[in-house]
Amino acid sequence: MKQYIAELRDVSVQTDSMRFRRNMERIGEIFAYEISKTLKWKNTEVITPLGSAECQLLSAQPVIATILRAGLPLHQGILNYFDRAENAFISAYRKHHKDNTFSIQVEYTSSPSVEDKYLILSDPMLATGSSLTLAYKELLKRGNPIHTHIVSILASAQGVEYVKKKIPAGNYTLWLGEVDDELTAKAYIVPGLGDAGDLAFGSKL
User: Fold this and answer.
1) Which of 40, 43, 69, 159 has a CA-to-CA distance to 191 between 20 and 30 Å?
2) What does pTM read for this prediction?
3) CATH architecture group of domain 2-201
């Protein structure tokens, strides 16, 4: 994973948006593999051409959720491993105000029920933690998950502390690629990697 994160940060590699997306996807696959070790599995008889074999399958499929648009490649990487999972998408953005502050606006949510299910919520950049915690609260309107796995490639130390304050301990596991110490006045992670959405999909108006 460290190589992929290094390439995500590297300005000389960031010019290749396809590689940027693929590296995010690869990181999602690594996280998914690690998360799979924590889930419940059941023994299942599988019929082969020559007999039967006892195999292990997931007891229940998780719900994979992400915040649009930057989270899509990371989401796809997780989905590559949990390819039968249900999916949820949250549209959230920073609304900037005249006093140079901003608030997080959630405009749209598409989600199945998460009642008594394992929830995997991904957001590639955990900066202030506001958008992630708002997305989590939005998903709770669809039920109470058994456990939530929160996945971010890069986080700020401040964002991590904010999530810990806003989401009750024991209800979630935090999976992070790396944690950077600094968060600027405009809420950008330093050294970070820039705007993940723009680097993956092109600049926006």
Assistant:
1) 69
2) 0.91
3) 3-Layer(aba) Sandwich (3.40)
